[in-house]
From TrEMBL:
<dbReference type="InterPro" id="IPR050134">
    <property type="entry name" value="NAD-dep_sirtuin_deacylases"/>
</dbReference>
<feature type="binding site">
    <location>
        <position position="126"/>
    </location>
    <ligand>
        <name>Zn(2+)</name>
    </ligand>
</feature>
<keyword id="KW-0808">Transferase</keyword>
<dbReference type="InterPro" id="IPR027546">
    <property type="entry name" value="Sirtuin_class_III"/>
</dbReference>
<dbReference type="Pfam" id="PF02146">
    <property type="entry name" value="SIR2"/>
</dbReference>
<feature type="binding site">
    <location>
        <position position="123"/>
    </location>
    <ligand>
        <name>Zn(2+)</name>
    </ligand>
</feature>
<feature type="binding site">
    <location>
        <position position="145"/>
    </location>
    <ligand>
        <name>Zn(2+)</name>
    </ligand>
</feature>
<protein>
    <recommendedName>
        <fullName>NAD-dependent protein deacylase</fullName>
        <ecNumber>2.3.1.286</ecNumber>
    </recommendedName>
</protein>
<dbReference type="InterPro" id="IPR003000">
    <property type="entry name" value="Sirtuin"/>
</dbReference>
<feature type="active site" description="Proton acceptor">
    <location>
        <position position="115"/>
    </location>
</feature>
<feature type="binding site">
    <location>
        <position position="142"/>
    </location>
    <ligand>
        <name>Zn(2+)</name>
    </ligand>
</feature>
<comment type="function">
    <text>NAD-dependent lysine deacetylase and desuccinylase that specifically removes acetyl and succinyl groups on target proteins. Modulates the activities of several proteins which are inactive in their acylated form.</text>
</comment>
<feature type="binding site">
    <location>
        <begin position="208"/>
        <end position="210"/>
    </location>
    <ligand>
        <name>NAD(+)</name>
    </ligand>
</feature>
<comment type="similarity">
    <text>Belongs to the sirtuin family. Class III subfamily.</text>
</comment>
<dbReference type="InterPro" id="IPR029035">
    <property type="entry name" value="DHS-like_NAD/FAD-binding_dom"/>
</dbReference>
<dbReference type="InterPro" id="IPR026591">
    <property type="entry name" value="Sirtuin_cat_small_dom_sf"/>
</dbReference>
<feature type="domain" description="Deacetylase sirtuin-type">
    <location>
        <begin position="1"/>
        <end position="240"/>
    </location>
</feature>
């Protein structure tokens, strides 16, 4: 049972690949996930990019094309989180590990992409960022510094620092409710957020297809597909809000 949240309660929501699964995007560690067919060391580290940038570009080009497939759209779980933000303005923060833009397309505004964004790139030489909705290659020249070979996906690779960790830490310390949706809880620092929120006194809930690695750390764990669980959970929350 959810605790009654006061009118100025804050909610921090961590999402992972599972929230986008029913939109048609792959997860990473499920049996049919990305890491079941591609090695992290070959495509998702700075060393991989130095060693074989062509392979890394091919990996992200394929994922970018997949994301831009018209069949890939936000699902009811993404839309439910937007409804929560709109009914509880200024009190809801979504921190996503996902590099897809489904939360953005659904209309989420208070949103942090802690692992970067697939539709953005930057130049390793001059650090200039830009949008990218096509394929990238080692031949591409940075439009800013005119140098070749530096353009890379704006994605946080293993061994690199996730984005906006200060803001995330502050939000976790201030949270009254922490939700974790569609993540296996295997990758830090995100996997440590539940402990931080709990230590700050937040009520913590896991909404996932199956128990994650950190399931026992949560006050509540509800299992099933996100597109069913999240709208139902938000409806219950807003129902409380309506009477608060
Ligand atoms: N609804 C809810 N949860 C689901 C669904 C679904 N339809 N389908 C799968 N899941 C759950 C799985 O049970 C699993 O626990 O989503 C979780 C996905 O876990 P991972 O594949 O490990 O993805 P994630 O936790 O987001 O990975 C974290 O690891 O490889 C890095 O940078 C990458 O951001 C990624 C990070």
């Amino acid at each position: 049972m959810l605790p009654r949240l006061s009118g100025n309660a804050t909610i921090v929501i961590l999402t992972g690949a599972g929230i986008s699964r029913e939109s048609g995007l792959e997860t990473f560690r499920d049996p049919d996930g990305i890491w079941a067919r591609v090695r992290i060391e070959d495509v998702a580290t700075p060393e991989a990019f130095r060693r074989n940038p062509k392979l890394v570009h091919e990996f992200y080009n394929a994922r970018r094309r997949g994301l831009l497939d018209p069949a890939v759209q936000p699902n009811p779980a993404h839309h439910a989180l937007v409804a929560l933000e709109r009914r509880w303005p200024g009190r809801v923060l979504v921190v996503t590990q996902n590099i897809d833009d489904l939360h953005d397309r659904a209309g989420q505004t208070n949103l942090i992409h802690m692992h970067g964004e697939l539709l953005k790139i930057f130049c390793a030489h001059c650090r200039t960022e830009q949008e990218c909705r096509g394929d990238l290659s080692v031949e591409d020249i940075c439009p800013h510094c005119q140098r070749k070979g530096g353009l890379r996906p704006d994605v946080v690779w293993f061994g690199e620092m996730p984005y906006r960790m200060e803001e995330i830490g502050e939000a976790l310390r201030d949270a009254d409710l922490f939700l974790s949706i569609g993540t296996s809880g295997n990758v830090y620092p995100a996997a440590g957020f539940v402990a931080e929120a709990s230590a700050a006194g937040a009520h913590t809930v896991e909404l996932n297809l199956e128990p994650s690695s950190g399931a026992t750390l949560f006050d509540q764990a509800i299992h099933g597909p996100a597109s069913a669980l999240v709208p139902a959970f938000v409806a219950e929350l807003l129902g409380d809000r309506a009477t608060a």
